[in-house]
Amino acid sequence: MSRFSVRSLLVLPIIAAAVLANGRVSIAQAPAGSTPLTLRANSTEANAKTGVVVAKGNVQINYPARQIQATSAQAIYYSNERRIVLQGDVYVLQQGNSLRGETITYLVDEGRFVALPQPNKQVEAVYLIEAPAAPASPAPAAPAPFSPQSQFRSSR
Asked: Does domain 2-126 have CATH number 3.30.360.10?
């Protein structure tokens, strides 16, 4: 494993292509169609053989392609499984919706979060729900003209 410097910066879809040599990481060209997920942390370790990246301390994630921002104490990216496990006071924000928990797993291909709380606590999820659009009210119908004659027929 190679250790990156403090406040290291990774682009996760690219790091799987990293080549570890002489304790340094050389990042290859990003494949076409890939979108960057930026991860910042106090320390980061990457293993090119297993495709696992471990980030520790003040972890911050920004994934603009899916409008995701997250913070946690630790993050583990499993590049072969395309899964990110965030641990320790996790907060995720996506398009105004938020999720808090002790451990939150993000399944990249599914675009799905799985959240677990601390023991004897709960996960908190806040969702923005748009109010339904008010139906367009039709123009009021013109009232029928007044007729002094009865509208009822007599049965005689």
From this structure: no
